[in-house]
Specification:
The complex is a heterodimer of chains A (100) and B (649). Chain A has 3 helices and no strands. Chain A has 100 residues and is an all-alpha fold. Chain A is elongated, with a radius of gyration of 17 Å. Chain B is globular, with a radius of gyration of 30 Å. The chains are: A mainly alpha (100), B mainly alpha (649). The interface between A and B is small, with 12 and 11 residues.
Chain lengths: 100, 649
Amino acid sequence: MVPLSYYLILSAIVFVIGLAGVLLRRNIVIILLSIELMLNAANINFVAFSHYAQTITGQIFVFFVMTVAAAEVAVGLAIVIALYRRRATLNVEELNLLKW
Amino acid sequence: MTLLLLIPLLPLASFLAVGLIGLFGGPWRNRGHYLAVPAAFAALLLSLIVCVQVMLGARLTADLYTWILSGTFHVSIGVQLDPLTAVMLVLVTLVSSLVHLYSIGYMRDDRGYDRFFAYLGLFTFSMVMLVLSNNFLQLYFFWEAVGLCSYLLIAHWYERRSACNAATKAFVVNRVGDFGFGLGILLIFTTFNALDYQTVFGMAPAATGITVNLLRPVSGVSGAHWDVGVVTLISLLLFAGAVGKSAQLPLHTWLPDAMEGPTPISALIHAATMVTAGVFLVARVSPLLSLSQTAMAVVATVGGATALFAATIALTQTDIKRIVAYSTVSQLGYMMMACGVGAFGAGIFHLLTHGAFKALLFLGCGSVIHALANEQNLRRMGGLRSRMPVTYLTFLAGVVALSGLPPFAGFFSKDEILWAVFQVPTVGAKLLWLVGLVTAGLTAFYAFRLFYTVFHGPSRVAPELAGHLHESPPVMTVPLMVLGLLSVSVGWIGLPEGEGGIGGFLSTVQGFTTGHRGGEGAVAHVVVVGLSVAAAVIGWAAAYVCYVKRPDLPAAWAARFTTLYELSFNKWYVDEVYDRLFVRPTVALARGLWRGVDVRIIDGVVNGIAATIRRWGQNVQAMQSGQLQHYALLMAFGLAMLVGMYLFW
């Protein structure tokens, strides 16, 4: 048996990689990609616990997470497209009107 | 009782009604006198009726309204009626009525006509209530009220800088005295636990043994003691108020400057009524005052010193109103001197006669000023006798009365004072009597100096005014004639001397029966009277020589005795000394406090707080960069904190 902690550590590492991508990348599409990565890290976590607790609940919840992720991507990309049409840039540093 | 209450209420109603006219105008504008003058004369009539009732034996003390009720502290608004009050009421309402009438002529075409009459009404109300009070707090309240009216009326022509300054000076100098007065009232309360006259005067004799340690704040540490009798202390503090209000030395400086106000005001407030409030106070608290030999001595000495001091200044002044003003200060000194030796009745008698002839002199000056289009310098007058006969004759009556020549009013009252002072067996009293005698001579001199330079001799009037010169209208000359008659006759109510006449009438007032009646014999009395008359005659003769026969003499003497002349002409430099000692340091302190404390510290702190908060705001503003990833970072950071707290706390 692979110890549970290995899966959790893996999930954590993937999450942090995703987080780093959100915080550090300039391209909006890459940021959305990184958000997906974070969600999937959470999925790994759910499945690991589901396997080790011998209950199906975790894996069922993964379905929900994936559905939400899909919807969110749809909306997020729609916003990106609208932004691109307006500003012709995908560089998030140039989208800085959300201030005082 | 109703009659009594109407006496103050009529002028109050006049004030309110005429005040409204003054504010809102309309068809009644500049006709305020139709309301004010009848109200004043009605008050006079009622005062006379009340006085007759008092002469027939009526007395009254009544509380009308409970003002303060706090535990055992009880103060009411109330009235007291006795001979002193009655006499004062008649004086106040009489002079007020005559001044009301006179002002119709004097203040005609003035922009503040209605305002003037309104304030006259307010003043009359306040003065009457002051005189009618039956407790110290009410007295103090109306004392301040008359001071307020004085301020308002001195600055009647408020566009004039000098008038506003004079009004402020009057109020501030009065306030200095009132500070002592207030302390006195506090001390009365802590000693007797009451503020109404009856209680305090009743308990006063028992309190003569109580002392106050003036060095109490430092006694614990140093063991130093300065015990003063509480009755003495109270009397001196109350006297401080009288010194301010009655323009005695050293708080006399405001009165000559108060001549900035219209002449009717000078006649009413600064001759016959408000300034006499100080003497009234001293007389009113005579039961208390006569228990303290020290206080009496102080009162008498201050009075005598003031009398002489002011007379010396009046000798050289050139503004006719100032001469009369200094004369008022001097005569008030006489009244204080009388009270100080226990002759309260004589002091009040002189107050009455003085009220008549001094008001007359002021109104006469007003008549002259009015005719000469506001000229007040006697170097530019002269020879007015032919053009203004009524003013001339009435002024003469006033001057003779002031000089104390028989059988005019001033003689009887002044003589009674000098005789009372002479009778006191101490050396100091004899000295005071001498001071009084010399002052009487000086008084006659400056009075006739004024008279001769204004009315006799060659005319030095400016040519453009000379043609237009004429006697004043009847509204102005009738009061002059009434006062002239009084100046001649009102002294006769002092006869028979001693127990009859006004002396007897006033002797029933509480506290008035002390004094040194019947000391030396009849021969001494005749000698003293003779000396007073002689002094007056010498003064008159000297003035006649200097200003009619040989007009070159005054200038020659002024050149010979330059130091004395300068001292007299410059009012003994008292104003300058006060300026150096008090005014400049206070102004410097105020300026220092303004710049150092108000601007630097207080504004600094307030502005500093605002600036600091703004700086913090600007620092925090950096958090709102608009950069998406900065916000995301902050969120991540917050998340890490939460997890950390959950795990490790």
